[in-house]
Amino acid sequence: MRRAAAIDRRSRKEERLEARVTPEQKKMITRAAALRGSSVTEFVVASAQQAAADAIKDSELLTLHDAARDVFVNAVLHPPAPNEEARKAAKRYKKQMGR
User: Fold this and answer.
1) Which of 15, 49, 75, 98 has its CA 20 to 30 A from that of 91?
2) Which residues form the domain of 54?
3) Number of folded domains in the chain?
4) Which residues in the chain belong to E strands, given as ranges?
5) Who contacts 42 (Cβ-Cβ below 8 Å, separation ≥6)?
């Protein structure tokens, strides 16, 4: 019983979104919601949530093709030796971190 109450508190809908749409957009959204067997609100929230997840994934996911992928993999597997500037930076870092 206690667990169900905790889940209910976490999923409580407390935030509100509003949007103005054209009559054509409203008609299309209403029709799409009906085709899915959901309310307009359920349809809009589910669609917005999916679009948000896709946008986040697109911004966080690095996709490389062909030559770019090969260059990246080669750089990870065979990194170049550090140059003088990189060695100096490593020394500064170790000194600052007390190592």
Assistant:
1) 75
2) 2-97
3) 1
4) none
5) 33
Residue listed under structure tokens 């959204």: 29
Is 25 within 8 Å of 33 (Cβ atoms)? no
pLDDT digits (tens, 9 = 90+) for 35-84: 999 999 999 999 999 999 999 999 999 889 999 999 999 999 999 999 99
- Cα–Cα distance measured from residue 77 to residue 99, given in angstroms and rounded to the nearest whole number: 27
Q: How far is CA 50 from the centre of its chain?
A: 10
Helix (H) or strand (E) holding 56: helix 40-60
Name the one residue in this structure whose structure tokens are 């067997």: 37
Contact 41, 48 (CB under 8 A): no
**Closest by alpha carbon to 35, among 49, 21, 47, 48?**
47
